[in-house]
Amino acid sequence: MTLLDDILVIGATRMRTAITHIALSTADPGTTTGINQSSAARQPANWAAVTAGGDFSLSAALNFTGGALGGAVHSACFWNALTAGTFYGSQPLTGDLFFNGAGEYTITALTVNGSST
């Protein structure tokens, strides 16, 4: 099955609206809500517009504080609320995967890719 861009945009637009906050996990969270979630507070997700192919990206960097000093970072976790809420999944991060010596971590870019093959 191959889906056309128009339907991918509809799906991505709904996901973009639903994912209001991002948390960090210290290891693969799998499908379990909150497992391996870091002590850094969730941050509001500010998304750029959905592209014609159904992709969407952060519109600005996300700055997290309160993590374990030098602690591991594994994934960005997608939520619909600042606390509690619905867990929608995660995306492994790349690059520097550790909180700094002040317990800070910045996601400079994050894209959710829509595709159909």
List SSEs in N-to-C order.
Answer: HEEEEEEEE
What characteristic shape results from the CA principal axes?
A: elongated
Helix content: 10-25%
Report the sheet with the most strands, covering strand number, pairing sense and barrel closure.
4 strands, antiparallel
Q: What is the C-alpha radius of gyration, as a whole number of Å?
A: 15 Å
Structural class: alpha+beta
**Number of β-strand runs:** 8
Strand content: 15-25%
End-to-end CA span: 6 Å
Biggest sheet: strand arrangement: 2-1-5-6
Please tell me the overall pLDDT. 91
Uncertain segments are none
- Domain module tally: 1
- The number of helical runs is 1
Explain how this protein is built.
It contains one helix and eight strands. By secondary structure, it is an alpha+beta fold. It has one domain (5-112). It is elongated, with a radius of gyration of 15 Å.
What would the keywords be for this entry?
117 residues, alpha+beta, 4-stranded antiparallel β-sheet, two-stranded antiparallel sheet, 1 helix, elongated
Could you give a quick summary of the protein structure above?
With 117 residues, this protein is an alpha+beta fold.
Helix and strand topology:
Blueprint: H1 5-18, E1 21-25, E2 43-44, E3 56-57, E4 62-64, E5 75-79, E6 87-92, E7 105-107, E8 111-112
Antiparallel strand pairs: 1-2, 1-5, 3-8, 4-7, 5-6
